[in-house]
UniProtKB/TrEMBL annotation, chains A, B:
Domain MoaB/Mog, chain residue ranges per copy: 10-174
Designated name of the protein: Competence/damage-inducible protein A
Species this chain originates from: Caldovatus aquaticus
UniProt-listed PANTHER family: NICOTINAMIDE-NUCLEOTIDE AMIDOHYDROLASE PNCC (PTHR13939), NMN AMIDOHYDROLASE-LIKE PROTEIN YFAY (PTHR13939:SF0)
Superkingdom field: Bacteria
CDD domains associated with the record: cinA
Length: 257, 257
């Protein structure tokens, strides 16, 4: 589709709490939107348990396949926070104190009131794969890091977002991925499917997606045209609207309310 | 951990709309909880684009690795609904009209008032990998299916849930995975991390997870003990509560409000 010229990315969501259903992931949607704005095409996401072998295998696989890998979760001080040491293993480098992160946290705990203890658990948060570059954490201090094409972020959404925005200026994307949505109440996917397929064929560089919706007052279909050429996206969305009108619908620009 | 005796599962969430951030996935948490209740250990989830090569490769890989695979999304009538034909390709079987599904949908459209058109797009929803067993859809009729250890469900949450519940009696799980949560306001992960690691070592068959939380009135830590032996889970949670109390906290059973 349109995004072949854009750098690609994979997100790894690390944490038993997402796989048990305790926690609803709130990071993927944020990263997906921001990466699209930056012009990086998110191609895959995986949710992984706090399991060393699973994390190392997935990181090794996807860092070779995609231009960027973003991990969320598993970089706190507790025994189930093992992302950082797994990244070191995947890269085959030592996991060791990072001088700048160490100084930052040691200094923070020394000057807290009352002073905190920069204990072994907290020291783990300043221990990183050799060669890591810090990602600033303006919310809760303990930094994330980048090594190679892997960016290691926190799991708490507020912290993850702040870290991502610290990192964003260093990410080089392609042309932004833009989209236009047209929706029409009362139309059913099964009626418009063949016409939509024709429009998709007419605009091979635009990705056309069809999404039924359901509302108490009745449903309809939303059609999304997406790509990196704003003119083609606009023209494809125009064709969709004309077709929905020809099917007897009343197409409206934008998502259904 | 505790769940080695339980059958394992992987969820594949199929749809560009999740990878673009347009849609927040709402199916993983439901499946995660229900699988835990049934005693099936969810080990991984992946979000995949509407891309034939990506879907076929992922299905082929994970169906060999896990006891069950559940897919959501991509089984409607439009050109971007390609899950079913990709599953056929992954299994190396023909993708062909399923007689029972075909009869069901043909009959439905014939007797609608006004009659609908059982057109080629709708016929796609009755076209399945050879050997598929139907999964009933009490919400919107068009069925899902099981082939081998792969269960193919809709993407719309209400429909997905109804399909899963149609399927659930046919799934054989191990012992249910139970959990107990203890939380304490005001405690920080960095202070309790070493003691929690000790408790984890004492209860190797219980999975102990630590999750900080943030509230306008202040934060704390929630600790989850999870496993298939209710007695061990209870005892580990008891040890956690005693430890948090020794750290000066006031542990409360359950999730923070």
């Amino acid at each position: 589709m349109t995004t072949t010229a854009n750098p690609t990315a994979c997100v790894l969501i690390i944490g038993n709490e997402v796989l048990s259903g305790r926690t609803q992931d709130a990071n993927l949607q944020y990263l997906a939107r921001r990466l699209g704005e930056i012009g990086i095409a998110l191609r895959e996401a995986r949710v992984l348990p706090d399991d060393r072998a699973a994390i190392v295998a997935a990181v090794s696989e996807v860092r070779a396949r995609y231009d960027h890998v973003f991990t969320t979760g598993g970089i706190g001080p507790t025994h189930d926070d093992i992302t950082s040491e797994c990244i070191a293993e995947a890269f085959g480098v030592p996991w060791e104190p990072h001088p700048a992160a160490w100084a930052l946290l040691e200094n923070y705990y020394r000057h807290r009131n009352p002073p905190g203890d920069f204990n072994p658990a907290r020291q783990r948060m300043a221990t990183m794969p050799r060669g890591a570059t810090l990602i600033e954490n303006p919310v809760s201090l303990a930094p994330g890091f980048t090594i190679g094409n892997v960016h290691v972020l926190a799991g708490v959404p507020r912290v993850m977002q702040a870290m991502f925005e610290s990192l964003a200026p260093r990410l080089r994307g392609g042309p932004p991925i833009v989209s236009r949505t047209v929706h029409a109440d009362g139309l059913m996917e099964g009626r418009i499917a063949e016409g939509l397929a024709d429009i998709q064929q007419r605009w091979p560089a635009v990705e056309i997606g069809s999404y039924p919706y359901y509302r108490p007052a009745g449903g309809g279909v939303a059609v999304v045209a997406k790509g990196t050429d704003p003119e083609q996206v606009r023209a494809a969305a125009h064709d969709v609207a004309a077709f929905l009108r020809a099917c007897g619908g009343h197409p409206v620009e934008g998502e259904p309310a």
